From TrEMBL, chain A:
Quaternary organization: Part of the FGAM synthase complex composed of 1 PurL, 1 PurQ and 2 PurS subunits.
Name recorded for this polypeptide: Phosphoribosylformylglycinamidine synthase subunit PurQ
Catalytic residues, chain numbering: 86, 203, 205
Main subcellular localisation: cytoplasm
Record gene name: purQ
TrEMBL record, chain B:
Chain's gene name: purS
Functional note: Part of the phosphoribosylformylglycinamidine synthase complex involved in the purines biosynthetic pathway. Catalyzes the ATP-dependent conversion of formylglycinamide ribonucleotide (FGAR) and glutamine to yield formylglycinamidine ribonucleotide (FGAM) and glutamate. The FGAM synthase complex is composed of three subunits. PurQ produces an ammonia molecule by converting glutamine to glutamate. PurL transfers the ammonia molecule to FGAR to form FGAM in an ATP-dependent manner.
Keyword presence, Cytoplasm: yes
Protein name as it appears in the record: Phosphoribosylformylglycinamidine synthase subunit PurS
Catalytic activity, reaction form: N(2)-formyl-N(1)-(5-phospho-beta-D-ribosyl)glycinamide + L-glutamine + ATP + H2O = 2-formamido-N(1)-(5-O-phospho-beta-D-ribosyl)acetamidine + L-glutamate + ADP + phosphate + H(+)
Compartmental location: Cytoplasm
NCBIfam families per the UniProt record, alphabetical: phosphoribosylformylglycinamidine synthase subunit PurS (TIGR00302), PRK05974.1 (NF004630)
Metabolic or biological pathway, per its Swiss-Prot or TrEMBL entry: Purine metabolism; IMP biosynthesis via de novo pathway; 5-amino-1-(5-phospho-D-ribosyl)imidazole from N(2)-formyl-N(1)-(5-phospho-D-ribosyl)glycinamide: step 1/2
Organism: Crocosphaera subtropica (strain ATCC 51142 / BH68) (Cyanothece sp. (strain ATCC 51142))
Length: 226, 92
């Protein structure tokens, strides 16, 4: 499985991702500069966390028009795998590959923490190594991670099982108190209808190394190799 | 013959979207004693000048810019004002 990590000016989780896919999982991994256009050799495209183009105007708004994104859209439309983490998730909504938008956190804080997240759909390539409703702990670090979509969008996501991760408490209950940023329906991650595109605010790549005793994010990447 | 226009663009969150920054500023104003302040919303103000054949052409382009980049229609509305700038350097 060959991974491609897109590097926008301002991406800062790109090397963390390569550390996981190449360093820990021994998969070929290529860093892809935002001006590149040929990504035909890649199986899984990852849009990493960070502040693409400084996140001026809105998170992900300018990255959306970078030349590599045309190829990413093509890659996604062919049914190939695309993962957007944090800023990458914001870019995927801006470009329209995923519905909705990510806006400023409810309480205005930049949140840097570890939060419990429940796996809502384990039927996707991304989540097949998790059990259904499994509660995992993942790091979050964002100021604008509150998922927003209009009523119809939220209903469609629910109906099509596109909500992949929800913020929950340690017992796996979906409560308002366990929602760190005010996301509608406690949404932490969603997929497109086909399930080949995943966007999530928590950082699985930061919970992948036994050295830091946090490996529940690594299962997501391992699931892709099975 | 094209004309230079000055454009003021206002991008605001759609009314249905919670604006936590607006709520925080509202409570700050209340603390200062301005109890009458209601519904503070914080948006973005963008200024630009552009060359266009006429005002309609300028408006068409601005609509496009707002829809494509300056505003995100999922969460934001926009409006703008356009003023024709006086041409300089031409003899009267």
């Amino acid at each position: 499985m060959k991974f491609g990590v897109i590097v926008f000016p301002g991406s800062n989780c790109d090397r963390d991702l390569a550390t996981v896919t190449e360093g820990l999982l021994h998969q070929p991994t290529r860093m892809i500069w935002h001006q590149d256009t040929d990504i035909s050799d890649i199986d899984v495209i990852v849009l990493p966390g960070g502040f693409s183009y400084g996140d001026y105007l809105r998170c992900g708004a300018i990255a959306r028009f970078s030349s590599v994104m045309r190829s990413v859209i093509e890659h996604a439309n062919q049914g190939k795998l695309v993962l957007g983490i944090c800023n990458g998730f914001q870019v995927l909504t801006e470009v329209g590959l995923l519905p909705g938008a990510l806006i400023r956190n409810r309480d205005l804080h930049f949140i840097c923490d570890r939060v419990p997240v429940r796996v809502e759909n384990n039927q996707l390539p991304w989540t097949k190594k998790y059990t259904s409703q499994q509660v995992i702990t993942l790091p979050v670090a964002h100021g604008e991670g509150r998922y927003y979509g209009d009523e119809d969008t939220i209903k469609e996501l629910e109906d099509n099982h596109q909500i992949v991760f929800r913020y929950c408490n340690l017992l796996g209950e979906i409560t308002e108190d366990s929602n760190p940023n005010g996301s509608l329906s406690n949404i932490a991650g969603i997929s497109n209808k086909q399930g080949n595109i995943l966007g999530m605010m928590p950082h699985p790549e930061r919970a992948s190394d036994p050295l830091i005793r946090a490996t529940e994010g690594r299962i997501l990447f391992e699931g892709l190799l099975v | 013959m094209s004309q230079e226009y000055h454009c003021r663009i206002y991008v605001t969150l759609r009314p249905s979207v919670l604006d936590p920054a607006g709520v925080a500023v509202q409570s700050g104003l209340h603390q200062l004693g301005y109890e009458g302040v209601e519904k503070v919303r914080i948006g973005k103000y963008i200024e630009l000048t552009m060359m266009a054949h006429d005002k309609t052409h300028a408006e068409t382009q601005l609509d496009e810019m707002c829809d494509r980049l300056l505003a995100n229609p999922v969460i934001e509305n926009y409006c703008y004002e356009i003023t024709a700038l006086e041409t300089t350097g031409s003899p009267k």
